[in-house]
Design goal:
Layout (H helix, E strand, L loop, with lengths): L2 H4 L2 H17 L3 E8 L4 E8 L2 E8 L2 E7 L20 E2 H9 L6 H8 L5 H22 L2 H19 L1
Antiparallel strand pairs: 1-2, 2-3, 3-4, 4-5
Length: 161
Amino acid sequence: MNSDCKECQPFIDETERLFGPTIRKYGFEFSECEGMRQGRECQVMYRASIGNLLFVLQDGAPSCFLGVRTQSLPPLVLLGDRGDYNWYHVVTLTEIALGNLVYDMRVDKAIRKGKIDFFAWQSDLLAEHSLQLFLLLESSDAGWLTQQADGVVDKRRKTLI
């Protein structure tokens, strides 16, 4: 771990606690880390032959993103769920793969009430759909995938209004 990662150790520990089974199952290995603001902003990347995982802590909100094997660490900026820098949020990618929304009004309400931990829920999605999601990433054109992500995100936002 480099010196930038020391401030992110609590986030790394939480990530490995929640996502550890999937990380181990597919042979992901810690690759890179970048932290800012005394660990309030962190990016942690893991690599495996199946693809890359990026865990991001932004403004206190942890998220999981997937990228192809050649994907590098993006700039430490606010990543959206539409495929910014070709990193795809696990929720958006799952919705593309399944062809329906998984983040609906019921899930949104449960997260807001604290009944569902959003980061743990992302871990469950990844554990259930890992292979399918990485195959989708590898077999899809980035332009098409970003277009699909735009459509899914727009559809999700309309259902949550």
